[in-house]
Amino acid sequence: MKVLSSADFAMGDILYVGSQGREGCEKAVVASVEDPTTIELAEPLQHAHIAYDDVCSVLGDSIRVYRAPNVDGSIPANGSFVSLATRSIESDQLSTYYRDSNGTSDHWYKFTYTNLDTGAETDLSDSTATRGQDYGNYCSLREIREEAGFLDATNLRDTMVEQCRTNAQNEINSALRNVYGKKVPFNPVPGAIKTLTIQLAAAYLLQSAYPGRKDLWEPRFKAARAKLESLQNKDDSLTDDDGEDLVDSSISYYPTDDQSRAFTMDMRF
User: Fold this and answer.
1) How many structural domains does the chain have?
2) Which positions ≥6 away from 21 have C-beta within 8 Å?
3) Domain span including residue 189
4) Closest among 160, 13, 26, 43 to 93, alpha carbons compared
5) Global pTM exceeds 0.85
6) Each residue of 181-238: pLDDT tens digit?
7) Which of 51, 64, 125, 136 is 20 to 30 A from 45 via CA?
């Protein structure tokens, strides 16, 4: 394979030839560097490539996912992380996904890049640790999938489910901020808010998956929003673990039922 310069390539390097994340991009392995502009590949390329197509050397052709338990909210030491799985990177896809079916916000995650042929792996200390996906949210993605009937829908990406969760949480926070004030967003999350988020996000998810099937998602929206409206109007209330009402007493409402109105119908201006 002819390149502009072979100076930065070496035997065993993993290359992606073509525009990464797009159809036609493929993996190649350097067998040897022949001269300043020629690279010998271990296997022939499978696709035709145009002149000056991208040739990129990558850290590895797979990712290895690690998990550690959360203890005190701080990032655990590297020795606490245990390998969960290895996933091959598909060069013609924008992202590589791994879903931990038993993961929660009580876990931290890291990942490394690995070379399946040589076993080489990047240093775990170079990876940024992140909390489980339900951290800072009102429910987990798995709970939304289960409510919508998509628990085993492997082709449905978590990014879509996450967007539906974000839409549901934004709608709930916007509706209840004038009642619960600084307690919104809720932390800890009341059980009623968690259930409402799951139901509302599942409705959003079904609407995205089946836009023409209103019978699948319209009743769910109606039921969830009726509950949300009752909380907004203070017909229902949220309580903490001790049974105390969560309404923010610092928020005032005028006029109340026992006060006269600010204006009456006979006034002229």
Assistant:
1) 3
2) 91, 92, 93, 94
3) 141-232
4) 26
5) no
6) 888 888 888 888 999 999 999 999 999 999 999 999 999 999 999 999 999 888 888 8
7) 64
